[in-house]
User: Fold these one by one.
Assistant:
Number 1:
Amino acid sequence: MKTYITTLLFLSITTITLSQQKTPDWFVKNMEESIGTWITDNMAYKNEQEPFDQYGMDWQWGIGKQSISGTLYGLINGKKQGTFWEFRQYWDFGKNQGIVVQYGGDGTIGIGPMTMNKDNQSELIQEFVGPNGNNKVHGHRSTLKDGKLTTTSFDVSEDGTWKKRRSYVWTVKNTKL
């Protein structure tokens, strides 16, 4: 009986402590600013294997506005061509950090922490594991300024060196999701 009461007391204290924790303001602001449909031009990278004129991202709130979910898709002549990635962004109170998880259409999964630097630029480092078990680390840096979201992707080597891959400038088309 003593063990049972101790366990109940521990669970009650843990529940009260968790319910009092608060997602940092910078992370809430990042989620709020992400909501909507974002479009970017892909003409600089368009080729035979990548025929998309544009890319689109749709972001919406999760239940209770504690997380956001999104999709990334290609566009040809303004028409969606399929979903490449699904996303979930949330604050992990156990790790005390923002987390972004990506699920690829081919079974690849990427997960990693998001931080905000002093220049109001978010930084995301994710480990991606493919269905064949191979893994890679990618980084993303994003800045929202004057209604434009600039995103840059990087390969991250084992020694922590970031090598630039691509940059895109996104504009929001709809914020009423």
Number 2:
Amino acid sequence: MSYRLVYIAIVLFLAGCGSNTCELPKEIDRIPMDVEIERLEKDFFSMEQESEVRDFLKKNPLFADQFLQLNEYPHDSILVNALVGLATNQSLDSLAQQAIQTFENVDQEEEHLETAFKVLKHHYPEFTAPEVKTFVSGLSQDLFVSDSLMVLGVDYFIGKDALYRPDTYNYILQRYERHHMVPAALLLLSNRYNKADFLDRSMLSEMVNAGKAYYFVQTLMPCVPDSSIIGYSGQQLADVTHNEGRIWAHFIEKSLLYEKNPMQVQKYMGERPSTPEIDKNAPGRLGTWVGWQIVRKYMERNPDVTLPELMADTDFKKIFAESKYKPERR
């Protein structure tokens, strides 16, 4: 199968558009929602004494309990001493100051989250916005999301000019850029709503489940490019869009949709620099991208299906069948 690279300008609109419109419907836009991101690293890296750390923990009980897991320690002095060492580490302080400078203004992140939480509140009236904090953990945790707390590890998302970068592969590092941070956090949040049939771990089941997660983020962030949601470069997204028919043909010709061998499924769903089974230039995680396109087609053909109904639906075979997904070769 021939996998053709295309110039990004040819399909720039595809790489840059995550939705048909960026405007929220009036009934969603008028939902009151005020997100203020609290910058915990600023106070944390000004501390030097054990007493200051204890005051910090008392001032931020949710962060202490959920992110730092204070209650898991046999005695709080263990955590306090570790945090004193963290706060006074000169190398880490340099990274923290770079993160503070890079994220000096988080208005855009607050705006993205306000939009996302308005959409969530519209679809799930019981939703209560979590507290949102930033922190520098010394590259030990990038994101944390629970019902009541969201922590953005800004030291991970400084970008290419960071003094220290996460110890991971280059193809994963490209996702540790600022514009991927909020979409990645919302992808984690989707786990709270995304129901799946865990008794069937076939390729198609995993595809549709991943596709639902990306569709969830797309719905919450209608103005954000697809590339920022899935973590492909603009060129990669242009290429997979251009080659969609050929990619799909590979799954059909190799009878992969109902494959249950975990190693085979992982080749198309898991982290890899490329998918050489399709083409040496094809990016990894192609199964997740195809799943996203299946779910998109399903929702286009079923406009009466709500986001909560989609996320609660575990019948992946029905979603696939009703999507009538069958992209043509170019």
Number 3:
Amino acid sequence: MASKGLGRGLGSLLGILDDEEEVVKAKPVAKKEPPKKVEIPEGEVVEEIAIGLIDNNPDQPRKNFDPTALSELAQSIKLYGVIQPILVTRKGDRYMIVAGERRFRATKLAEKKSIPAIVKDFTESQVKEIALLENIQRQDLNPIETARAMKELMDSYNWTQEALADRLGKSRPGVANTLRLLSLCPEVIDLIEKGKLSAGHARSLVVVTNPEVQLKLANQVVNSKLTVRDMENAVKEVSKENRKSMPKAKPEMSMEMREFKNNLEHKFSTKIEIKGTEKKGKIIINYYNADDLDRIYEILN
């Protein structure tokens, strides 16, 4: 399994690496009190690595970095330095980020020449797994980024939803509900990624199969500030209307009626339609020109 060989203490490592909200959790800058330093797992060595030797992870699951939050983190780093080391792996004579992308970007923004890092040797498969797991565990990924990261893990390692849920410490229904967001139409997904539509609103929309209706309801949330409960009620109304407009299923023709229909078609050499049941209904004999009509008339006589 891909998780084997990740190294002793990796859980502890990820524990110190998955929290990048230093600005939020730190004391207000005005008080000039530095954030509390984190404890490094026993046996791990923190190195100071030059920024120019570190490359971004091309498989980084997070695609959107809030500029304002990044600027705030950079300001904190200018004042106190990086309080949590990033995790990197060797790539020849260079390094690649495994976890801590946001801290790395903020450090560059703060114009620092180096950054504290823990260096560990990982395979490409392990780097991908760790990066995905670390990002999913974060709270500030948008729901679509989380869903895509979950799907990529399942596709890459042939994990079931149960296996992924166990790996993440989440419930299987929770994983399933997040993955279902990827079934929404592209326009609605875009609204979620832009933060205009919450995960709660989006989950309510999943049961709506018509893309146009999905987008219409999503725009109502954006324009009218509907609550999740409002959205759920709107979806219920749409479902009721769809059930009313659905054509009633035709009663299945009995074997005797099918045989009767076949005999008529053989007799008249044309298409026969029977609407109804053995008790009540009508028979339609199709003809396609004047000669056909005369032929049928002669048969009837």
